[in-house]
Amino acid sequence: MNESFPRPDGSIEPATRAGLVAAIAALVALFAPVADAEKADQQKPLNIEADNMSYDDLNQKNIFTGHVVATKGTIVIKADRVEIMQDPQGYQYATGMSTSNNLSYFRQKRDGVGEYIDGNAVRIDYDGKNDFTKLITRAVVRRLQGLKNVQDEVHGSVITYDGQKDFYTASAGKDQAAPGNPSGRVRAMLAPRNGGAAPLDGAPATLSPSESIKGTPQQ
User: Fold this and answer.
1) Stretch among 113-122, 163-172, 208-217 having the lowest mean pLDDT
2) Which pTM was predicted?
3) From CA 100, how far away is CA 188, in angstroms rounded?
4) Which of 114, 162, 177, 188 is deepest in the core (most CB within 10 A)?
5) What is the DSSP string of 190-213?
6) Number of C-beta neighbours around residue 122 at 10 A
7) Could you give the CA distance from residue 155 to residue 180 in angstroms, rounded to a whole number?
8) Confidence at residue 104, expressed as pLDDT on a 0 to 100 scale
9) How far apart are CA 219 and CA 117, in angstroms?
10) Is the C-alpha dihedral spanning 98, 81, 147, 113 positive or negative?
């Protein structure tokens, strides 16, 4: 790699590159192609930049630490620490974790439209076999038109996003508690589709909050 990636705090710092060539060659299959993910992603190389890298041979795990940025086509993961593993079939999995007040970051383009799904959480687990992302603790997921215009935004303790089915769920938790939301309930802002309300016989909404959440929303 001959370029630098933005650090999560917005600044740019060259990363330690020793040993990255061998690691990237072993990880190039990360984020296996699936039905509704950006199809061009499967042809793109995996690039990882970090301050440090280590390899756990016993657990077959690559560990990157320090302002880590992993990219493969339109897929981006940023975190303080990223661990990558591969199963016997060659599918690979990434876990991004951040500490203190930092949050990990994830982004992926939806196939065939100029929209992205992005989000933040303390921990982000990405399943490359099933194109399934799980954001854990202080999680927020957004649907963007382009890279800036927020159409939907969901806050929850745990949010899952299924890239194959373009479907996501959110669950409440104490980490979402705030003065106006003491029980940490899921909160969402959903923009109308096509500028108007969907017909009653239309397709179901893709947002599916936890069934355990009941009662009147806190004001």
Assistant:
1) 208-217
2) 0.70
3) 25
4) 162
5) EPPGGGSPPPTTSPPPSEEE-TT-
6) 21
7) 14
8) 98
9) 28
10) negative
Secondary structure in 3-state letters for 132-154 = EEEEEEEEEEEEEECCCEEEEEE
Gap between the Cα atoms of 1 and 102, Å rounded? 26
Domains annotated for the chain, with CATH where assigned, are: 20-197 (2.60.450.10)
Q: Output the CA angle 23-52-119, nearest 5 degrees.
A: 85
The pLDDT tens digits of the residues spanning 139-194 come to 999 999 988 899 999 999 999 998 888 888 999 999 999 999 999 999 999 988 76
The one-letter amino acid code at 49 reads: E
pLDDT of residue 42: 54
Helices (H), the chain: 20-27
Measuring CA to CA, how many Å separate 48 from each of 2, 70, 75, 157, 175? 11, 4, 12, 28, 30
Mean pLDDT, residues 112-132 taken together = 91
Q: At a CB cut-off of 8 Å and minimum separation 6, what does 112 contact?
A: none
Residue type, 41: D
Tokens of 169: 């769920």
For the chain, strand residue ranges (E) read: 46-49, 52-56, 61-72, 75-86, 92-97, 104-109, 115-121, 123-127, 132-145, 149-162, 167-171, 187-190, 207-209
